[in-house]
Design brief:
CATH architecture of the largest domain: 3-Layer(aba) Sandwich
Strand order of the largest sheet: 2-3-1-4-5-6
CATH superfamily of the largest domain: P-loop containing nucleotide triphosphate hydrolases
Number of strands: 14
Distance between the termini: 30 Å
Order of helices and strands: EHEEHEHEHEHEHEHEHEHHEHEEHEHH
């Protein structure tokens, strides 16, 4: 259930013809990236999944050169920097005894976004570094580059060990979603509507992730549709510890579940796990302070088939419009698509649960809004707020 988006991303960055693709092939042991003496052979990010000892599967990302030229070249450079924002670790290649504005721009971007990086001096067989150059880089960057050549296999394990050491644990060690609030034997009811937006023959990813976490914590999961919720609750000898519902039926479920039973949503559970929960809690009340002409940005982490029952594109805008009694404009941006408007144009940004992206990617996606002091919220918390159960949806986590 863990797609490439949830695996740690290790990006390789540097100028054209500095051996970025060769390094990916060297480290993975496979010819997954095109290698050419022609500058700019890599035009789009190339991804390869590989098992990394002690970490698990990681995604290597080979990017276009940051010194590309021309209008198309500038687009490639922009894509490389956009890819950097999604990485958990950056490998910055230098070569030819050169370190100037191109390399500095990469390191500045890493520091600004708090992305750890490793400096590698590439192609040492062609143009070995001088000691004075290595001293200069170390003095200016605080780290001495690791010198290597792809023709020297003795450096491969050294580089991999450096990567393992530099990769943040948060990128591959994931905390339990509910482990701090549920225990062995607790009964947890999951309310999972089946409508046109539900995938044929399976459950949606947030439901699967939460279900797995319940089982990992030796709790007992009971799964039902909203239409069978009353029957499910009545069949229990004692009330469940917690009811977790899909956000789109929050109001209906809240009217059935006794007030002394903890209630939250899949989206709220994931929002809490992704590390931006405090920002969501602070930003959600903006829904009570909207004005005619305000614009709201709805961020989806994935791309999917859109139906008349789509929660982000259809139901949530209708709920907000009805709740605010204002004329609101909505923009929906899927995946990691670039925004067409400045973030400051928005009165509020509402992010989906983020089940298919990592904590690093989600934080990067919302960073411009937070830096611009634009309030941010989450699908589940926004719908809970509209239904008047905002505080209730968080009670389980404050108990």
């Amino acid at each position: 259930m863990k797609g490439n988006e949830l695996k740690p991303r290790i990006g390789v960055f540097g100028r054209r013809n500095y051996g970025k693709s060769s390094l990916v092939n060297y480290l993975t042991g496979h010819n997954v990236a095109i290698v050419s003496n022609t500058p700019g052979a890599t035009t789009d990010p190339v991804r390869k999944t590989m098992e990394l000892g002690g970490i698990g599967p990681v995604v290597w990302v080979d990017t276009a050169g940051i010194d590309d030229v021309g209008e198309l070249g500038m687009t490639r450079v922009a894509r490389s920097f956009a890819e950097l924002e999604q990485c958990d670790l950056a490998i910055v290649l230098i070569a030819e005894n050169r370190f100037d504005t191109f390399e500095q721009s990469l390191l500045d971007a890493c520091r600004k976004s708090k992305i750890p990086y490793i400096l590698l001096y590439s192609q040492a067989d062609r143009n070995p570094p001088s000691e004075s150059f290595l001293d200069y880089v170390e003095k200016n960057c605080g780290v001495r580059p690791l010198v290597f050549s792809i023709f020297d296999n003795t450096k491969r394990d050294i580089i991999l060990q450096s990567i393992i050491k530099a990769l943040p644990e948060s990128a591959y060690k994931h905390k339990s979603l509910l482990g701090d609030v549920i225990g062995a034997g607790d009964k947890i009811v999951l309310v999972t509507p089946i409508d046109s937006s539900a995938p044929e023959g399976r459950m949606i990813l947030p439901q699967v992730q939460v279900l797995r976490d319940i089982l990992d914590n030796s709790a007992i999961a009971l799964v039902c549709k909203e239409s069978e919720l009353s029957q499910t609750l009545a069949s229990l000898a004692a009330p469940p510890k917690l009811v977790i519902t899909d956000s789109q039926v929050y109001g209906y479920v809240a009217s059935i579940v006794p007030d002394d039973v903890f209630l939250t949503s899949f989206s709220v559970v994931l929002a809490r796990a992704k590390g931006l929960f405090d920002e969501y809690v602070k930003g959600t009340p903006k829904l009570s302070d909207l004005h005619n002409g305000d614009r709201i940005l709805l961020l989806e982490s994935c791309t999917h088939n859109i139906t008349c029952e789509d929660i982000g594109r259809v139901k949530l805008p209708k709920l907000i419009t009805k709740f605010s009694q204002k004329k609101i404009d909505f923009d929906v941006v899927p995946g990691l698509t670039s925004l067409e408007r400045p973030i400051s144009d928005y009165a509020l940004v509402i992010q989906c649960g983020g089940c298919v992206v990592s904590q690093r990617q989600l934080a990067s996606r919302l960073a411009p809004a937070i830096e611009a002091e634009v309030p941010v919220s989450n699908y589940g918390l926004a719908i809970a707020y509209i239904n008047g159960i905002f505080d209730r949806s968080m009670r389980i986590f404050n108990s």
